[in-house]
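Usage example:
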Amino acid sequence: MRASGVLPGREEVNPVESRPRAATAITSGGGGVSADRVAAFIIKGCASVAIVSLVLIFVFIGKEALPVLPVVGSPDVREEADLGKMFLPGEKGYGWQPVSEPPRFSLLPLLVGTLKATIIAVLTAIPLAVAAALFTSEFAPTWVREIIKPAIEMLAGIPSVVIGFFCLMVIAGWLQSLFGWNFRLNAFSAGIGLSLAVIPIVYTMAEDAFGAVPQAFREGSIAMGASTWQTAWRVVLPSAAPGLLAACVLGFGRAIGETMIVLMASGNAAMLTFSPTDSIRTFSATIAAELGEVVVGSGHYHVLFFIGAFLFVLTFLINLAGHWWIGKLQRKLQGAA
Amino acid sequence: MFRMACLLSACIALTMAVGCGQSTPGSGGGSAKSKTVTIKGSDTMVILGQRWAETYMNHNPGITVQVTGGGSGTGIAALINGGTDICAASRPMKDKEREQAKAKGGKEVDEIPAALDGLAVFLHEGNSLEELTVAQLEDIYTSKVTDWKELGAPAGKIVCYGRENSSGTYAYFKEHVLKNKDFATEVQSLPGTAAIINAVSKDARSIGYGGIGYAKGVKVIKISSKTGEKSVAPTMENVVSGTYPISRKLFFYTIGQPSGEVKAFIDWTLSEEGQKVCEQVGYYPVAKK
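Running the assembly step on the lines above writes:
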């Protein structure tokens, strides 16, 4: 079975590296060796630019986040904001009031807000996207597939600020007139907006995963007397599980880091509640709204960078866990096959 | 996967290494090109600044005036870091910020009041309420009062809209209406006064605040300074005479006394012609010194 593609950057390194080598082996002794070397060098160069820029981004963010940490941090900054103030309850409970006197930098309301929006988005997007992918790959006639697939993929091309605006002006209004919630802009409306950004990613990857299931599996299943539905549900879906999981991980990463949609549609009130109909303020929206204005070097500035680093590590860990789980699933499938 | 973990730990190690040799980034080289004047800051003043810039450039070809928003805090940060010639701010600079600007720029910051703004309070057009006191506004935005019936309007939960904390309007409202108390966590912050107007016009139980220049499709409520006082609307006479309780000055800031093109531009905005422009946009002229 084809390897499922979680995190394209990392996945593509192997084919890119192996292909030129194979070519060298074939043409060895001929005149094309030096040209191959140049090509391999260029391709490796391109790949390393991606990795180096990733490292540099992390170094930059990490460097600006360091002052709030214990031991390596700077005492001036830590007086205003340190890990205790960010994660433990203050005198007035958990609050995000960065321009108050004294400022309050509790990250808990932001974390809860971020998770609320992300979970709502993922729970909405994944079933829809996976079901749509299963339909187009297993049931739909070719002409239907040729309409649905590009249509969903086009959704990925819509700038997130447009989705956010649509959510702010239209979806939020619909939801409020439907349910009469107190807050017109809330975690739910933001989550629905986010799901519009997540659906195309999950759909495309799930489509690929279903496409990678060998045709022989389907033929075998049909030959045994199973219906198309039974084949899709009991054979194709489980065989594509690693790819589907990769799709979900990537969708989750997109949802947690998305900025413009939540900035516009979530209300940006840092409330520490678990109700999906309250307004929320997410990590990414907080950085977007506040970073432009902070005085460079202040506690607030470093806290915002700490949030960035925190978000980075959080998505990294989720990807890592997803990758591990996918590997496990793949081994299990291969063992069973 | 092992490689990924290695990569991450390498990143962290590198971070520590770089971080230990910390230095403040950025350089202070902020002098603009000869014929360009840059203004950065308050979103409230963007429309005003642009209109000023257009009119001024029509009269003085060859000079470019660039206006960008982002919030008063953004403008002040840019002034301190040398990223703009003029900072437009809808709140006075704090002492701490003045010190930083002096430390970086080497000169005292010069403050020039450029226009007056009545900070209007908006309600949905269907709201029957006609007036509020400043104290009632404080109660609403600190969530001491959460239902319209406590204010004499038909019952319904109050939904508060405000600005992001980078906004001068936010800072002004916090200082003058909330007496420096914190906004309640339920107050939703929206990016820009236009977004607040939009939200208030759609939400029957909502309240918002912002520059009077933006008010369209919402009800602008009369404000009294305390119970028993006469409530007044944010009209030109009331703001210029100072009877409207929540009016404020809009400022220009420069590092040191303005000179050259910057001075010429600022002098023009304070002239009769410049002040007429600010009336056209919906703000009010600064009272003659």
